[in-house]
Write the structure tokens for this entry.
Amino acid sequence: KPPPPNPWVLLAGRLGASFEISLEPEVLVVEHGGSIQLKVKTTCQDPKAFGNVETSIRKQLLLAQPTEVVVKLLEVNVWNSSIIYYFNCRGERKLFTTALIVYRSLNRVTLDPVRELEVGKSHELVCRMENVAPIRNLTVILWKGGEKLHTKTFQQYSQDEPMPVQVIHRLTAQRQDNGQTVTCQAVLDLTPYGPCFNVTSEPQTLTVYEFPEDPKLEPHIYLEMGKTVNATCTVGHVFPSVAQFKLALDNRILPHSVSRDGHRATAEVSLNHSGNFSLVCTVKVGPKERWKEAIVHSY
């Protein structure tokens, strides 16, 4: 948040000083490259009183009166700067310094593409943004649907210059996360003296899978030459429930049928010569593949 009003201005009045000065706005917030108009006022009643603003930034004096001075700072292109404002009243000078808060518009927030997530495993969600200033006013929130997964603030940072930001959160996937959307929200809040930027990344839809065990296949199949036998390959607790099966006999893909629940594939096996042959069942769930091998004994 922008700093509170300068306590020294208030303190001068409490101590019964002969006059007070004040600054409007109390906190100076300006976009990098932009301009800001400020007013210095005094309670001094001396018609010869005068005041001004001292700064290395190019300025334009808009009004100079015994009770107030209006100055415009032009094309502010420094990140770490302060101004001095003062008034002289009956030979006494009051002078104060205040920081200039320079910001850059927050325009884009990106969430790295989320690959398919395995149930029970930890996966990184990575949110990125470039050229954030001032970072201490930034809050980043990672969401899953309407649930806040992680909130990160940067109040401890003192850097004024723009800097890249990366926020990482580890998500342990569950079956109920499948189809949920995740987003990254960034809020650069300069209120009440400046704007509030609220930007959200494009949503990423979570795809979750579970394939904890190898498929099951009878390890030895005995087949009389010229005859046909059914070979069945099954999977247990998989998610989503439809698995992709492939059965190959001696590197030859076999036609197969899949049960209604998607957990079992059956293929007809036949051989015209004797010997021992490899039958491999390969199953894919999400990006994960598992396989099981059986030996077909043809006699």
Q: What stands out?
A: The chain is about 5% helix and 55% strand. The first strand starts at residue 21 and ends at 24. The chain has three domains: 7-103, 110-208, 216-298.
